[in-house]
Amino acid sequence: MAGDLLDSEGRGEVFSSLPRIHPEGRKFAIGALAISLVFAFFAWETLAWPMAFLSLGILAFFRDPDRVVPQDERYVVSPADGTVVQITQVAPPQELVVDDGSGTEGLGTDPVTRVSIFLSVFDVHINRTPISGMVRRLVYIPGKFLNADLDKASEDNERQYILVERSDGVKIAFAQIAGLVARRIVPFVKPGDTLGVGQRVGMIRFGSRVDVYLPAGTGSRVMIGQRVIAGETVIAELDTRPLIEGVSQ
Question: Site feature Cleavage (non-hydrolytic): at which residues (predicted)?
């Protein structure tokens, strides 16, 4: 039913528990902890304690909490935890416009609203799909590792575009962008996969940015400087009058 709240596994309630740790992070945490134990064995406490705290920091970085997802087809939810740093009108990326030979049309050439979300190392780095639908494109672009907070990071940095199409033809694209510290984009999906809104689609390691390209004519419901939560915060509502500066919700 429209407006119902479900978590990412279909449960209609929020429950209190410690967030799971994504498998990508376990090997790093175990490695840091193992080094800490070696240092402790040799009584090198000045080295052992920092490594122990580092292992805890790694576990915190790779936390993967459940989210309660709004179930309303009008809503576009945030694909990332972080802070909105830019809301602007741009032309869609060429990689999402040109014919890729798959037989599926990409985005149009008309300008669209792009919402840019910056993720610090303290944010959850699991990314989620803004809408339900099928993955039509997944395009990896090698590039630089500039500060993800800069405007030119959208065009210059290493990034991965994901284009999702709903059954009614609505298409939304978003980009996972590597940052100054982030050095790897890890996808969980592939073209042809069918996703539920708020489903996990990938992660970016250690600080990054996610850009969302809203459908033409759709405006933002968030403001620059606002904190958003992946899979929960509604960043746009389809078929509403564009507001480039965003509005508070």
Answer: 207-208
